Amino acid sequence: MHQLKVNNGQGDCDQKAGITVKCLCPDKKDVSIFYNGLLTKSGATQVYLHTGTEDNWNNVYDHRMEPTPYGFEKTIQIESNHLNFCFKDSANNWDNNNGQNWSLSMSQ
């Protein structure tokens, strides 16, 4: 799993995969996830952020991402210190980091 961290209100990125995460508030519960990866480059017109919390993917949800000139973006509020995520398009094609997914750790 590729782990991203939000430290001291900053974000992190996986440039190779086209993913950037940015924290939007001091409590680090609102994060924006930007995606310009494999699905976008393959022509997807709609991308969903697939999320789950903790190690066993509790609270699984698909968030419809908004198209931007730079790919897709979604801002979510997270209630956990650990978020797993990957992406899928409307044809059910997945970008899941070769089955490894991504995780976000909210550190102080």
From TrEMBL:
A Pfam family the protein falls into: CBM53
GO molecular function: starch binding
Domain Carbohydrate binding module family: 28-107
SMART domains reported in the protein's UniProt record: CBM_25
InterPro entries: CBM25, Ig-like_fold
Protein name (database record): Carbohydrate binding module family 25 domain-containing protein
Organism whose genome encodes this protein: Desulfofarcimen acetoxidans (strain ATCC 49208 / DSM 771 / KCTC 5769 / VKM B-1644 / 5575) (Desulfotomaculum acetoxidans)
